[in-house]
C-alpha cells in the first residue's frame, strides 16, 4: 500500500483549519503529514521537508513563493507543478470553490494524488461549515446579551418589570419591522447618551 | 438591468482604475455592476480567473500570456487583454545596510542617474565574493511579472548575472517590507505602496524605478478569458469604456488627493494612506531622511497608458524568451501575443 507513504505538507495561515485537514488525512491512513504556517523562509523549509504533495489554501500569498518551484533552476531541487486533474472538471471546480490548491512533485501519477486532494476538499468544506455554525451561534449569543442589557436598563430607569420591558421592545421591533437586537442596541445607545 | 462583472485585484496603488470605475460610477454608467474582490496574491488571481470564479482581473501583464501558453505548471486557458491599466508603479528597493554599502562602494554610480545604481551593487557583490560571503537575495512578486524582468534587466545592465550572482525568489507584495526588515532578503522589486513604505519605516531605500529601467513596459493589464469575451463582446467593450474613463479621471493631478483617499479605504489597499498619497502626488522621498524628488510614479491615461499596444508588450515577450526556462519558442510567443493582446477591443470602446 505504497500510496499511504506519500509525504504530505499542509500549509495554512489558519492553524485550526490546518489541524482539521491534518487529522482528516491521518485518519484516512496517510501517515506522513506535516503542517507549517506562514514563514519567511518557506522555500527552505519545503526543500528540507521534501514533500511529495503540498496542500495549501487557494488564497494563501505563500502560493506566489511556491510558483517559483515550477521552474527547473539551480535554486529548486525538486520541481513541482500544480495538481489539476484534466479528466475531471468537476473536481477542479470543487477544489477552487472549497479554496484548496495542491502541488505535486513532477512525475507522480494523478490517481495517487486524487484521494488526497478529495480528502482535503472535504475537510476544508467541513471546516467552513463548522466555522459558519460557530459564527452564527456567537452572533445569537451576542444578540441575547444585548437584549438582556437593554431589559435591565429599562427596568432600572423606567421602573418596568422584566416582562413589560421585554414586551415593549418586542412591540417596537414588530412595529418598526426591525430585529429585536437592533431595538435593544438603540435602547442601550439612548441610555448611554443620557449619562 | 445592470450586468454584474466580478473583477479581482491585488491591493496596490495601481489597482486605481477599476476602483475609480466602481466608486465614481463610470462602470454603472455603462450598465455594469462592477464587483471588486481583493486577492492576497497573484496565484489566487490567476486560478480564479482561469477557472471562472472571476470574470476579470487586474493582473500582471505577462501572466495572461503565460496562462494562454499553459506555462508554469498549469493548463492553458485562452486569454484576452483588451486594455492596459497604466504605466510605471514599480521600483527596486534595497535594505538600508545594503544601500550604505552600495553608496560606499561606488559613490559615482549612486549619484545618478538611478538606472546606473546597479554598478554599485556589482562592486558590493564582487567584494562579497572575494571575502567568501554568501550571495545577496532579491525578491519579485511572481515568476511571470514585469517586476522579475525589470529586476533582471537592471542587474544584467551592470554585468550582474541574475541566475549566478544573486539568489532570486518570490514574495507576495504585502510581505515584502517584513521580509526586508527581517533580513530574509536584501532587496526587491515591487509596486507601491511597498517601496515608499520601506523608506517611511526607515529600513530601505529606493535605488531605481521602473521609469529608469523600462518606462513603456506594460505593468498591470485587464485580463479576461477569451471565452468570456466571445460570449458577449459588447459587455467587454462597455467594461473597457468604463475603465478608460476611470483612467482619465485617475490621471488628472487635481484628482490625485481624492484618489489617494479612495485607495486607502479598507476595501482597497487599506493601509498607509500617507504613503499612497506620496506615491500619487509625484514628489516621493526615496531614502530615509531624504528630500522629495520629482518622480511621477504612476501614469494611468497619458502616453497611451490604457492601450494594449503589442509593440510595448514585445519587450515582455523578449524577456520571457531570454530568462524563463519554459521551453517557449519565439514563434510560440509571437503567436500568443497576437492572440491575447486585443487592441481592436480597446478601439471599439474608445473610438
Quick description:
Chain A is α/β, with parallel strands linked by helices and 195 residues long. Helices cover 59% and strands 11% of the residues of chain A.
Keywords:
heterodimer; A: 195 residues; alpha/beta; D-Maltodextrin-Binding Protein, domain 2; Arc Repressor Mutant, subunit A; 2 domains; 5-stranded mixed beta sheet; 7 helices; B: 351 residues
CATH topology heading of the largest domain in chain A = D-Maltodextrin-Binding Protein, domain 2
Helix count of chain A, per DSSP? 7
Q: What is the helix fraction of residues of chain A, given as a range?
A: 55-70%
Please give the domain count of chain B.
2
Helical fraction of chain B equals 40-55%
The parts of chain B where pLDDT drops under 50 for at least 5 residues are: none
Protein name (chain B): NitT/TauT family transport system ATP-binding protein/nitrate/nitrite transport system substrate-binding protein
InterPro entries (chain B): NrtA/CpmA_ABC-bd_dom
Pfam families (chain B): NMT1_2
GO molecular function, one term (chain B): ATP binding
Write up what this structure looks like.
The complex is a heterodimer of chains A (about 200) and B (about 350). With about 200 residues, chain A is an alpha/beta fold. Chain A folds into two domains: about 1-135, D-Maltodextrin-Binding Protein, domain 2, CATH 3.40.190; about 135-195, Orthogonal Bundle (Arc Repressor Mutant, subunit A), CATH 1.10.10.10. Chain A is about 60% helix and about 10% strand. Chain A has seven helices and five strands, in the order βαβαβαβαβααα. A five-stranded mixed sheet of chain A has the order 2-1-3-5-4. In chain A, helix 1 (about 15-25) links the parallel strand 1 (about 10) and strand 2 (about 35). The longest helix of chain A has about 50 residues, at about 110-160. Chain A is elongated and about 75 Å long. The mean pLDDT of chain A is about 85. Chain B has two domains: about 5-85 and about 215-280 and about 295-350, D-Maltodextrin-Binding Protein, domain 2; about 90-215, Periplasmic binding protein-like II (D-Maltodextrin-Binding Protein, domain 2, 3-Layer(aba) Sandwich), CATH 3.40.190. In chain B, the strands form three sheets. Chain B has a five-stranded mixed sheet, with helices on both faces. In chain B, strand 7, helix 8 and strand 8 (about 165-170) form a beta-alpha-beta unit. Chain B is globular. The two termini of chain B are about 25 Å apart. The model of chain B has no long low-confidence stretch (mean pLDDT about 95).
